[in-house]
DNA sequence: TCAATATGACATATATAGTTTACACCACTA
DNA sequence: TAGTGGTGTAAACTATATATGTCATATTGA
């Protein structure tokens, strides 16, 4: 279950995985893995990502 | 930062910490700690809790 | 009283989120 | 031919979410 919405929001914000990663304080690999749906970030990280992309939890992480 | 909304939603659903914990497949202590705001659950657990309480991520975990 | 239920708090142990490092692939450009 | 930026992935490691176990307390009902 890839997270397509996250990837789309990131690209729309004109950020690379590495740039988003730096903004939220994780590594590029972590962002890549979340977009690939290979795991299960913590709530704090989800919120940081949402704030960086000006989205809400429901926008990026709720529902399939 | 205690999660008051989670506690209220759980009580409104007439569930004890232990009952909610069992429904989402964790221990009572984990629910207690999340309500107490002492950590940082994973996204999967947040979603399971929301589904058990018929709420969305934004309802329980977005904003202060 | 007493037993049962619900909660808070605290350790220690285990599973897994997240890091680091590294290599490979692709598209583009010089 | 390189060379660079963006991405996918994997192994080994560290940090921390979660489990397990226990004790204390408050409340409710018999």
Characterise the protein shown here.
2 copies of one chain form a homodimer. Chain A has a single domain, classed as lambda repressor-like DNA-binding domains (434 Repressor (Amino-terminal Domain)). Helix content of chain A is 66%, strand content 0%. Chain A has 5 helices and no strands. The mean pLDDT of chain A is 92. Chain A has 64 residues and is an all-alpha fold. Chain A has helices spanning 4-12, 17-24, 28-36, 43-53, 57-61. In chain A, helix 2 (17-24) packs across helix 3 (28-36). The structure holds a DNA duplex (30 and 30 nucleotides).
Distance between the termini of chain A: 8 Å
CATH class of chain A: Mainly Alpha
Number of helices of chain A: 5
Q: How do the SSEs of chain A run, as a string of H and E? A: HHHHH
Give the overall pLDDT of chain A as a whole number: 92
CATH topology of chain A: 434 Repressor (Amino-terminal Domain)
- Number of structurally distinct domains of chain A: 1
> Please, what is the CATH homologous superfamily of chain A?
lambda repressor-like DNA-binding domains
Strand content of chain A: under 5%
Structural category of chain A: mainly alpha
| Total number of beta strands of chain A | 0
Envelope shape of chain A: globular
Spell out the blueprint of helices and strands.
2 copies of one chain form a homodimer.
Chain A: H1 4-12, H2 17-24, H3 28-36, H4 43-53, H5 57-61
Helix pairs in contact in A: 2-3
Chain A binds a DNA duplex (30 and 30 nucleotides) through α3.
Features:
homodimer; mainly alpha; 434 Repressor (Amino-terminal Domain); 5 helices; 0% strand; DNA-binding
